[in-house]
Specification:
It is built from eleven helices and two strands. The chain has about 220 residues and is mainly α. The chain has one domain. Strands 1-2 form a two-stranded antiparallel ribbon. A hairpin with a 2-residue loop joins strand 1 and strand 2.
């Protein structure tokens, strides 16, 4: 699954945040939340969104029926909005120092989509976000730990190529790694604020782990 803004605004931002927490392979462009790759602005958006997500889902627990509904409708949910419309809605949801999930819940296109499927817009949305929060924490913390482990090796490669790079390019490469480390550490702190499943919710996630990963894009169906 691509983690660019690629469909419904309901799912777009969590996927972009998750992508932002992952190391970028050589030759790939990073996925950023801000034009021009402004890391300070990106860190602020991560903080704003995660804080809002924690607050909005703090009293929500996944139910068996809710999880089943989210998994059944997830693929269709991604197609609720076109890419540009999704970007605009996500942008509008950033209001002042917060993120307004209510704007997404009240979106007429999303409401109509829910009604067509016999879903209640807000309860379904809260179940969806609870699953996203739990998934984001697990997936991003693992990816961030691996990214930190890779940084010393990348620094060693830059040091080894210093003579060939020249001082200006070398200094730029070192600064980029320092910025990457700061972003990783910041994002890790934010993701650690996301909820940890316990009790029945943890058991439910374990029982349906394979389908969750297949549906949310982490495994291909049938893969061992």
């Amino acid at each position: 699954m691509s983690h660019a803004l690629r469909g419904g605004a309901i799912v777009a931002l969590p996927l972009v945040l998750l992508a932002a927490s992952r190391p970028v392979a050589r030759g790939q462009e990073p996925v950023l939340l801000t034009e021009g790759g402004d890391l300070a602005a990106m860190r602020q958006r991560v903080s704003t969104f995660v804080a809002a997500l924690v607050e909005y889902t703090k009293d929500v627990r996944l139910s068996a029926a809710g999880l089943q509904s989210v998994l059944d409708h997830y693929a269709a949910l991604e197609q609720v909005h076109g890419e540009e419309e999704a970007r605009q809605i996500v942008e509008r949801a950033f209001q002042g120092d917060g993120y307004d999930f209510g704007l997404l819940v009240r979106d007429p296109t999303y409401v109509a989509w829910c009604r067509e499927r016999g879903l209640e817009p807000e309860p379904f949305f809260r179940q969806f976000l609870r699953l996203q929060a739990l998934w984001m924490r697990e997936e991003s913390l693992g990816a961030l730990a691996r990214a930190l482990e890779e940084l010393p090796g990348q620094r060693a490669e830059i040091d080894a190529a210093r003579a060939q790079m020249g001082e200006e390019a070398y200094a730029s490469g070192v600064a980029a790694l320092d910025e990457a480390k700061a972003m990783i550490v910041h994002t890790r702190g934010m993701m650690e604020q996301l909820p940890v499943p316990e009790g029945e919710e943890a058991a439910l996630l374990e029982q349906h782990d394979r389908r969750i990963r297949e549906t949310l894009g982490q495994e291909e169906p049938g893969r061992e």
